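Task 17 of the worksheet. Students: predict the tertiary structure of the chain below and write it out as structure tokens. Keep your answer in the requested format; marks are given for formatting as well as content.
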Amino acid sequence: MTRTRIPASAPDVESDVTRVAVSTVIFSLRRDAADCPRLVLPLVRRTRDPYDGLWALPGGWLDIAENLDDAASRTLAETTGLTPSYLEQLYAFGDVARSPTRVVSIVYWALLRADEVDAQVAAHASGGDAPENVAWFEVNDLPTLAFDHNQIVDYALWRLRNKAGYSRVAHGLMADTFTLAELREVYEAILGRRLDPANFRRQVENSGTLVRTDSFRTGSHRPARLYRPHRDVELADRGPLAATSSTHESSTT
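Model answer:
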């Protein structure tokens, strides 16, 4: 068998085998001390070389008899104990120098509501099987990550921001019902900028993605009407692959 010529700048490769890994960037929201929602993600601290001690995205190796979407769900559950409400294939990262051995990573990105994160974390804690070495970080304040994972997070955030402009994907981070002000806060957390309240209200009310309810949020301010997502509108366009998708209904490739 003829060996592939390895460029001089590439790391040493012990064999011709290329391994396939699956990783996931999972976004959620956490409110800061000023009660503003911030986009956050979980990372796993590595306990072996390469990059022993650095934080990395949750993931693992693809099993030979496993579909990619199934592998993404499995490795995410094994490393963080989380099951996302929205899962989509992001990109394949295969730069020769990204790992000491030849590894191609199929990366997914996912969304999970804060209350779902809390419920799933609490369930694992009470069951005594909570994953170790997991911590949450704000997307704008990440440490130096293992491999090319900082670049991967940047790309996933770019994809999320683009989809937020033409789909209702942000609803994947919302409670079952919400006010327009709460929805606007989520969009601001995703986009990283303030939005004009009047323009935002007009755009989302005309989008056909929301359903007005007869309920109101009451408190110290004037009661605010509650909305819910239009369930007949997908979080994002699933395209022609939707009919053959092997993932749950909220996933897309």
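Marker's comment: The first strand starts at residue 19 and ends at 31. The longest helix spans residues 149-164.
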